[in-house]
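User: Structure please.
Assistant: Input sequence and predicted structure:
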Amino acid sequence: MSAARIGIDVGAARVGVAVTDPDGLVVLPLTTLQRDATNDTDISQVADLVAQREAVAVIVGLPLNLDGSDSASTQAARDWATRLSQLIGATPVHLVDERLTTVSAYRDLRDGGKNARQARDFIDQQSAALILQNALDTERATGRPAGVRVGGRKPRHRRKRDDVAKG
């Protein structure tokens, strides 16, 4: 059974895509898609990737301000993730905080000796990879999926017996 996951960085013009290996251990930048807010072809392409890779989850970055409030792009990312979730059905889509991932991607680019003009696609893919890696790290540390599931609530967890007695 596959444990592959797909990470997404939704922008106004482009969508960065990253994937894990089939075991869900290694994150790799994959591609950059052109954003298509009119026909949602970018969403269809991601849905095709989910099916091809038998992904068990999709992680979409949620662009928040540094103080945690919504940014100008937050609702667009939520809407994009909702449309993807409706298209792919049972595969869960989670929104996760993506603060500072683009800054880190630019740093990686600069450390690699390239400038932003040379590698816009790299930035989008690398941002998606960082979003996905952060989500995997959170899941490994907590034993729970990162972020908030689209179209639903956070995954439910059993309360400890002491918590039930108190609450």
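Residues 5-166 form a domain with the Nucleotidyltransferase; domain 5 fold (CATH 3.30.420.140).
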